[in-house]
Design the sequence.
């Protein structure tokens, strides 16, 4: 299983904070994103509406990362703390 | 000391914690507060969301990078989460060093880094009652660029 | 607020004074302390001499120049004189601004300026009992040069 | 009269903190300094031993400044506060 997390505005727009996805057919974050685009009818609109940041196992990355069972992938807007 | 917490913090307590050794000649503190106007709108409250686990990991990494660059004797980073009202304290960064140059640079570096890399998000409630997720500022990205970072959180 | 004084100051009192308006989003404080080792010698005490009148005039001018360069909502400069022991507070500079960039820059500018231009002199008593006037540091001159000052005190 | 002040190490070495000097024959700080060099037997050694800073009416200057009756001139080592 891949644990997928959404935060802040993205979480609100998708109406979802956390998902568990079967990892059998998902080799990397590129495939995960393609999977999420079709996950629900309106998700592609939200996911393509702006650039979201991505963290794999709690490290931000802009690369395509190979995924293994148990990995955690998070998507979120640019951060605004501090 | 690194903390992500709901409760408020106290300037004197944090200052005293930093002022721990006789080798310290300089203490710089930064405190971020909820401001009344942001991006031209009057704010009354805000809520801070975060990514539990990653936030702490990211703050630890930021402090580690600061310690690799400057002489730091003591350091503190506190970031609050949850609901905050006008003028409330959001974030505290304190650095104690032998010399002021290190303390100033490390404190500003940590804030610039945190602002663009640590997974916190602000949602503002305006005086009108409307709520709005705060947009990231280009100025914060620019502030970070001056430090020539190789790895980010 | 500008003060040249014998008595100690309190971090929380000074912080609260700076945190005076809801437009403030950033407070940076600097505190200088009596360090145990200076120029490779173990220090036990120091005495601060100053030029009464000129010191205050100089600090007022430094703050005026900082306000001309950056957005400053509140500012405080306190410098102590007389006899001080190890870890005692020597100097406090606090800046409250809307944004952190102004607060960091103004606070560091004031310290860099004060260090090379304000007429204070430190005389150290070493652990050995020997007394010695502190030599000016080349590093402080270099720190000042980055601000491209036109007029000095 | 010109009020002359010495501070810190310089004051200790000269054994003097304050002097009042007749201003009749002293037109500027250059003439004042020449006057001080001869003021006491050992003063020229101290005054020439290093570069001292100078403030006229509480403003630092490296220039030769014209002096008037009532002016205050201070000499001191590089400052070391903060």
Sequence:
């Amino acid at each position: 299983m891949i644990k997928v997390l959404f935060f802040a505005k993205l979480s609100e727009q998708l109406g979802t904070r956390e998902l568990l996805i079967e990892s059998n057919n998902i080799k990397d974050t590129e495939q995960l994103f393609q999977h999420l685009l079709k996950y629900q009818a309106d998700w592609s609109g939200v996911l393509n509406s702006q650039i979201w940041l991505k963290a794999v196992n709690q490290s931000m990355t802009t690369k395509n990362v190979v995924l293994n069972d148990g990995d955690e992938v998070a998507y979120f807007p640019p951060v605004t703390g501090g | 000391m690194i903390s992500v917490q709901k409760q408020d913090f106290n300037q004197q307590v944090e200052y005293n914690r930093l002022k721990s050794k006789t080798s310290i000649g300089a203490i710089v503190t930064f405190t971020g507060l909820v401001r009344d106007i942001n991006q031209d709108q009057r704010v009354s409250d805000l809520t801070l969301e975060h990514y539990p686990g990653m936030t702490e990991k990211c703050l630890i990494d930021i402090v580690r990078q600061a310690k690799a660059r400057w002489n730091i004797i003591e350091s503190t980073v506190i970031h609050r989460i949850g609901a905050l009202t006008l003028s409330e304290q959001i974030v505290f960064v304190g650095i104690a060093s032998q010399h002021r140059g290190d303390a100033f640079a490390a404190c500003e570096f940590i804030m610039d880094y945190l602002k663009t890399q640590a997974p916190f998000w602000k949602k503002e409630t305006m005086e009108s009652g409307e709520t709005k997720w705060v947009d990231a500022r280009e100025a914060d990205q620019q502030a970070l660029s001056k430090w020539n970072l190789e790895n980010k959180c």
